[in-house]
Amino acid sequence: MLTIGELAGRCGLATHVLRHWEDEGLLAPERVAGRRQYDDAQVARVVMIQRAKAAGLSLAQIRRMFDAPNGSERRAVLGEQDALLDAQIRRAQESKQLLEHALNCEAPDFTECPHFQRLIALPGTACGGSMR
């Protein structure tokens, strides 16, 4: 069993974060003489919350995942986030392609370069099409 301070220290968190997660229904530590005590199951939940947040899940999504009655519903929550991450990665790759062209373009003004104009006309970029 770990105290809130011990668990926070081991996980690199502030104690108020653990209290907030408890308020959000994500953690349910035992109370011993009024003090929070975290067993292995609660420690595992903290690690899962940290990993899920690192993957971009919101606390509401994490709660849905924890509250899901079975593995397929948990996977559905993760699948939604996976699709969002794919879209973010695609947008980031498009942005990187634009930046790399602008940095390496030999035209006096890269914004007037025909290749740059084609890049910004690609579906899925800023407005989804040409700015002309």
Into which percentage range does the β-strand content fall? 5-15%
What is the helix tally? 6
Structural class: mainly alpha
Total strand segments: 3
Given the C-alpha coordinates, what overall shape results? elongated
Fold-level CATH name of the largest domain: Multidrug-efflux Transporter Regulator, Chain: A, Domain 2
Percent in helix: 55-70%
The CATH architecture term of the largest domain is Orthogonal Bundle
Radius of gyration based on Cα positions = 23 Å
Name of the level-1 CATH class of the largest domain: Mainly Alpha
The pLDDT mean sits at 90
Outline the low-pLDDT stretches: 128-132
Distance between the termini: 64 Å
Q: What's the main sheet like?
A: 3 strands, antiparallel
Main sheet: strand order: 1-3-2
Order of helices and strands: EHHEEHHHH
Please give the domain count. 2
What this model shows, in words?
It is elongated, with a radius of gyration of 23 Å. It has helices at residues 4-11, 15-23, 40-54, 59-67, 71-104, 114-120, and strands at residues 2-3, 30-32, 35-38. Mean pLDDT is 90; it is low at 128-132. A three-stranded antiparallel sheet has the order 1-3-2. The protein folds into two domains: 1-57, Multidrug-efflux Transporter Regulator, Chain: A, Domain 2, CATH 1.10.1660; 68-120. The protein contains six helices and three strands. β2 and β3 (35-38) form a beta hairpin. It has 132 residues and is mainly α. This is MerR family transcriptional regulator.
